[in-house]
Amino acid sequence: MIPVAAFDTETTGVDVETARIVSAAYVELGARGEVTFERTWLVDPGVPIPDEAAAIHGITTERAQADGQEVRAAIRSIAGQVVQGAVEFPLVVYNAPYDLTLLDRECWRHAGQSLLAGEWTTPVLDPFVLDKHVDRYRPGKRTLIATAATLGVPFAGTAHGALADAITAGRLAQWMLNQPALDPYTPEALYHSQIGWAVEIADSLRDHFRTQGFSGRAETVDGTWPMRRHHHHLENGACVFPCCADRAPDVVAPDHSWVSE
User: Which domains does the chain have, with CATH numbers?
Assistant: First the structure.
């Protein structure tokens, strides 16, 4: 197996444009799936954590306020670690458009800059997309927990914890890369292939919703991968993100030096 890095977050909600990070984990796994480096963050997001979110990951508003890192410093640290690690390793993120888009929006929110200076220069590996491509019509859930159980990859600790989820996602990707359907691909080739596979998955989901009479829901499906395009989050008719103040929302910052300030 090849060494990889993996990243995961726990958050206040499911909408990447408005949710906030409350915990995050970054790990590096060696060729046998062993953890060679790990780093975790507990964040005070600066907003109340909904009870339904706390019920999933166990982090309450009170705990975040008491023990969490100040949000801007935390986001700078998380983004810096992810960017640095992605230079050296393929970066594994389960359902990448959620976690990477969320981190990008937090970067805009707290620093006025994007997570990226341009296109990704290292492969992103998304076990969700890889699994859907290899076994498109398998019934059942495709959550990280369900997919790992189906494919026989042991879960690393307590579910819905960023560290355990990151380790499990990394080992799941390593296992998948050794299977016949994906073995011929290099991580670089897989990265570019996943962009197209994500579009195919989204198209299939849209067709499903339309045949079930949910045309409105079909229109909300976004196949952009590994990061969603910026959608304006409006308050009083104006976008709250600094990127919209003086530049087009899809123009990323010229560098990401802010992460090491």
Answer: 4-260 (3.30.420.10)
